[in-house]
C-alpha cells in the first residue's frame, strides 16, 4: 500500500502536478491496494501509471479505448490507401478494374469519423462501467498469462464469426437491408477505410458480436482482463479492414490457412450482394451453402487468369476480366 502511495505521489510531485491533486493520488492509491509495484514488469507498471495519471478509471479506460480504436483503424487503413495508389499492385486486386477514387476515400473517411465521434464515443464512455458490471479486471495488474489470453481470444473469434454470420444474414432480409445494411453496400468494390462505413444501428448490432463474447465469458468465468479484450479488438479491426482491402496477395492468410475468410471472401460479398456472410472463417458459409456463387466465380476467375497467361496477355486486362464475369452476380437481397 505504501509503495503504491509513494508511486502515486511521485506523479503528483513530478511534472504532472497540475493534472492530479494529492486527494486524487490517495484515491488512485486505493485503486492499487495490495499491489506491489516492484513485482510488476515494465508494461504492467506503465498500465498502472496510466490509471494513476488520470485518477479516474472511467476516464482512463474511455480515453484508452477511443484512442486505440482511432489509431488502429486509420493506422491500418493507410497502407491500403498507399497500395491503391500503386499501379504495380493492380495485379493483386480482386476486382481487377475497380480502384477507389480519392474522392470516394475522402467521403468514406468523413462518414466514418462522424460516426466515431457521435455514435461510438458515448458508447466507449460506458465501456468501463459495463466491464466492471460483468466483473472484468480493468485497472488491475498483473496481466493474465499469454496462454490465458490466447484461448480466450480464440473463443472470441469463433463467437464473433458465428454471431456475425447470422446477424449479417438477417441484415440482408428486405426491410433490414433497405433501412440499415444498404449503406455498407454502397461500395461494391470495398477498400480498407470502408470497413466501418455503415449505419449506426449496424455498428451497434454487429459490434455486439465483437464485445458480446468477452462479456459472456466474463459473466460465466469472472476471469477476464480488459487487456485481453483490447488485443482481441485490435485483431478484429485488422481482420475487418484487411477483409475490405480488395486485395489478395500470395502471402494473404487464406492462402496458407484455408479456413480463414480474408478479403478474397468478403470482397465477393460486396461485389455480388449475397453469400459469404461470415467475418473471420469460412465454415458457416460452407456448411450453409451460402458460398456456392463465390466458389463458381473464383473458379472462372482463375481460369480466365490462366488463359490470359497462355495467350500472353497481361493480367488484369479488360478482355480477361470480361471472361471471368459470365454469371449473373446481382440478385435481390434475401
Ligand atoms: Zn452484407
Ligand atoms: Zn463489408
Write the SSE topology.
Elements: H1 2-13, H2 22-31, H3 42-54, H4 57-84, H5 102-125, H6 127-133, H7 146-171, H8 174-179, H9 200-221, H10 226-243, H11 262-272, H12 283-288, H13 292-310, H14 318-324
Helix pairs in contact: 1-2, 3-4, 4-5, 4-10, 7-9, 7-10, 10-11, 13-14
Bound molecules: zinc ion (ZN) (2 copies).
Outline the structure in words:
This protein has 2 domains: 1-55, no CATH class; 56-320, no CATH class. The chain is 63% helix and 0% strand. The protein contains 14 helices and no strands. It has helices spanning 2-13, 22-31, 42-54, 57-84, 102-125, 127-133, 146-171, 174-179, 200-221, 226-243, 262-272, 283-288, 292-310, 318-324. The longest helix is centred in the N-terminal third of the chain and has 28 residues, at 57-84. The protein is elongated and about 75 Å long. The structure holds zinc ion (2 copies). One zinc ion is lined by residues 168, 172, 181, 185, 269.
Number of domains: 2
Which molecules are bound in this entry? zinc ion
Summing up helix and strand content along with how strands pair, one would put the structural category as mainly alpha
Rg on CA atoms, Å: 23 Å
Amino acid at each position: 500500500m505504501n509503495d503504491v502511495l509513494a508511486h502515486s505521489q511521485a506523479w503528483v510531485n513530478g511534472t504532472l502536478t497540475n493534472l492530479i491533486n494529492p486527494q486524487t493520488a490517495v484515491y488512485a492509491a486505493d485503486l492499487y491496494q495490495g499491489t506491489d509495484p516492484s513485482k510488476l514488469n515494465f508494461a504492467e507498471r506503465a498500465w498502472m501509471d496510466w490509471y494513476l495519471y488520470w485518477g479516474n478509471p472511467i476516464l482512463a479506460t474511455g480515453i484508452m479505448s477511443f484512442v486505440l480504436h482511432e489509431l488502429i483503424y486509420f493506422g491500418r487503413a493507410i497502407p491500403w490507401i498507399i497500395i491503391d495508389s500503386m499501379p504495380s499492385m493492380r495485379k493483386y486486386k480482386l476486382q481487377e478494374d475497380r480502384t477507389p477514387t480519392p474522392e470516394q476515400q475522402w467521403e468514406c473517411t468523413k462518414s466514418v469519423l462522424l460516426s466515431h465521434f457521435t455514435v461510438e464515443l458515448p458508447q466507449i464512455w460506458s465501456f468501463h462501467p459495463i466491464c466492471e458490471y460483468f466483473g472484468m479486471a480493468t485497472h488491475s495488474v498483473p496481466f493474465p498469462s499469454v496462454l490465458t489470453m490466447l484461448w480466450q481470444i480464440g473463443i472470441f473469434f469463433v463467437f464473433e464469426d458465428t454471431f456475425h454470420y447470422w446477424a449479417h444474414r438477417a441484415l440482408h432480409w428486405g426491410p433490414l437491408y433497405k433501412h440499415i445494411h444498404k449503406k455498407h453496400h454502397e461500395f461494391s468494390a470495398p477498400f480498407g477505410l470502408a470497413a466501418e462505413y455503415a449505419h449506426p444501428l449496424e455498428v451497434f448490432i454487429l459490434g455486439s458480436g465483437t464485445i458480446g463474447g468477452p462479456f459472456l465469458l466474463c459473466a460465466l468465468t469472472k476471469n477476464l482482463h480488459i487487456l485481453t479484450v483490447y488485443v482481441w479488438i485490435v485483431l478484429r479491426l485488422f481482420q475487418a479492414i484487411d477483409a475490405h482491402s480488395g486485395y489478395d496477395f500470395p502471402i494473404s492468410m487464406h492462402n496458407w490457412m484455408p479456413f480463414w475468410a480474408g478479403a478474397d471472401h468478403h470482397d465477393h460479398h460486396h461485389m455480388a450482394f449475397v453469400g459469404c456472410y461470415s467475418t473471420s472463417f469460412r465454415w458457416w458459409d460452407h456448411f450453409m451453402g451460402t458460398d456456392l456463387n463465390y466458389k463458381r466465380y473464383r473458379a472462372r476467375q482463375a481460369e480466365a487468369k490462366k488463359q490470359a497467361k497462355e495467350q500472353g496477355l497481361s493480367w488484369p486486362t479488360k478482355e480477361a476480366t470480361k471472361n471471368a464475369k459470365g454469371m449473373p452476380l446481382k440478385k435481390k437481397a434475401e
